[in-house]
């Protein structure tokens, strides 16, 4: 690790806006937020993966991965970050370093050639170049190559220095925020600006969730100047310093960016969520309050309250039939980060009981919110082996499991319903319409008749009873078979 990157990582471990970090001693703080890895166990995403998660949703730029083919192939298109326009971000481009490039030292030449070819072929407004483990270890000067290419090609070429070996996905998220602050934000001026411009930080428009929220802002006359980075355009991110309020959707990832933007451009920030009725309303109120403090028209607060009242009334009316059916149903929630408490808040409002929620990627603030929502009965799970999850589900502790795709097979093996709420999902669950979609999917999964069938004993299991032969070959059955 070069000295510049080492200094950057140390500064992130000393993030003053992170309450958990500030509470640590100097020695503990230097260790960072990563946890020791278990030999033989999956470690989750690396720092490179984390940086690409944050930056790739910028849709009109080219993303070049400098490293072996597998680095790009492993993480390409594994999230449903949707775009309303350009699809340049969906091109998987890599320098495909080989053993010969490492031996002969031709990595920098391959990188420059890739940058030049991408610029000539796609004519993007900017190019992001990601450093992976191999070029970092052999000493490729990616920053120098990017600077030279930017001068020659007359477009921004931005180095993202986050090789996987330096830490976890969360650290990569923060390094991506540092990249945006150092090289992008503040480099351009917006085409238009107003007193009601906001940025949403840490929202990646998974399956179009941003589009569920944006109509609410449109009705209030609030303009989402930049979403960092869901469905983003380079110019909007580069001019994000002119917005009046920053809302963080996931503070664990990009709190360093929000804090630095407040210090440099005096943009106030807060953490909020768009999962659930109560959290959506609270976030809208806070945005309106901060905008009015910053100079927006005072009637914005009244208009916001009127919109919230109308949307909540309509949402509760549509939820009522589902609430009656789902009352008392038990959910096991296996996720992390901001969803560990925001989904809890959303489900509790529908009468669903949370029997357990994982906090494996949650901050201390997230955990405090869970305790506040669930009270003394909060069943927070830091780490649980798949076998234990299976045993709990098989014992009937939950009626349904909400998790990511990697753990769906535990629920299916236990023969209970499952709904995907992770980043790879194809459904959007944000805002007032989003909570309705989530409840509908839970109700649909629970009422699916397949579960009654799969729970019946198999022919080779004890308790199975063979159907009567007359039931299988009655006249109506034979007639229907012939007719089909």
TrEMBL record:
Role according to the record: This protein may play a role in the biosynthesis of the prosthetic group of nitrogenase (FeMo cofactor).
GO biological process: protein-containing complex assembly
Domain Nitrogenase/oxidoreductase component: 46-444
Pfam family, one: Oxidored_nitro
The protein's annotated pathway: Cofactor biosynthesis; Fe-Mo cofactor biosynthesis
Record keywords, A-Z: Nitrogen fixation, Oxidoreductase
GO molecular function, one term: nitrogenase activity
Stored PROSITE patterns: NITROGENASE_1_1
Family: Belongs to the NifD/NifK/NifE/NifN family.
Protein name in UniProt: Nitrogenase iron-molybdenum cofactor biosynthesis protein NifE
């Amino acid at each position: 690790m070069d000295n510049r990157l080492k200094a950057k990582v140390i500064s992130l471990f000393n993030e003053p806006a992170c309450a958990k970090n500030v509470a640590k001693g100097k020695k503990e703080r230097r260790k960072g937020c990563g946890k020791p890895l278990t030999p033989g166990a999956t470690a989750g995403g690396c720092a490179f993966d984390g940086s690409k998660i944050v930056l790739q949703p910028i849709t009109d730029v080219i993303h070049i991965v400098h490293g072996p083919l597998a680095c790009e192939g492993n993480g390409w298109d594994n999230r449903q970050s949707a775009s309303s326009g350009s699809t340049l971000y969906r091109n998987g481009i890599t320098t495909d370093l080989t053993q010969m490039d490492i031996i002969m030292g031709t990595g920098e030449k391959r990188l420059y050639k890739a940058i030049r070819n991408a610029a000539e072929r796609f004519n993007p407004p900017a190019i992001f170049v990601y450093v992976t483990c191999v070029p970092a270890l052999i000493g490729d000067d990616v920053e120098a190559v990017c600077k030279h290419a930017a001068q020659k090609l007359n477009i921004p070429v931005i180095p993202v220095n986050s090789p996987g070996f330096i830490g976890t996905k969360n650290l990569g998220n923060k390094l991506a925020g540092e990249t945006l602050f150092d090289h992008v934000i503040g480099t351009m001026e917006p085409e238009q600006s107003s007193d009601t411009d906001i940025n949403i930080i840490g929202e990646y428009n998974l399956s179009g969730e941003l589009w569920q929220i944006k109509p609410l802002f449109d009705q209030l006359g609030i303009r989402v100047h930049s979403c960092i980075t869901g469905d983003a355009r380079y110019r909007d991110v580069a001019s994000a310093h002119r917005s009046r309020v920053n809302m963080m959707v996931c503070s664990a990832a990009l709190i360093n960016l929000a804090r630095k933007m407040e210090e440099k451009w005096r943009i106030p920030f807060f953490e909020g969520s768009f999962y659930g009725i109560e959290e959506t309303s609270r976030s809208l109120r806070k945005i309106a309050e901060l905008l009015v403090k910053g100079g927006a028209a005072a009637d914005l607060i009244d208009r916001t309250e009127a919109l919230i009242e109308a949307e909540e009334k309509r949402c509760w009316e549509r939820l009522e039939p589902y609430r009656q059916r789902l009352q008392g149903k038990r959910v096991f929630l296996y996720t992390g980060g901001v969803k560990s408490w925001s989904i809890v808040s959303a489900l509790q409002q529908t009468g669903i009981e949370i029997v357990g929620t994982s906090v494996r990627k949650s901050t201390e603030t997230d955990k405090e919110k869970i305790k506040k929502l669930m009270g003394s009965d909060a069943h927070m799970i830091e780490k649980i082996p798949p076998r234990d999850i299976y045993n709990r589900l098989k014992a009937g502790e939950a009626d349904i499991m909400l998790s990511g795709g990697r753990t769906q097979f535990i629920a299916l093996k236990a023969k209970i319903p499952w709904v995907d709420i992770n980043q790879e999902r194809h459904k959007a669950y944000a805002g007032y319409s989003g909570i309705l979609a989530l409840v509908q999917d839970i109700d649909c999964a629970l009422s699916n008749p397949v579960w009654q069938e799969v729970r019946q004993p198999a022919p080779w299991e004890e308790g199975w009873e063979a159907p009567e032969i007359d039931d299988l070959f009655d006249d109506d059955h034979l007639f229907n078979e012939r007719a089909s």
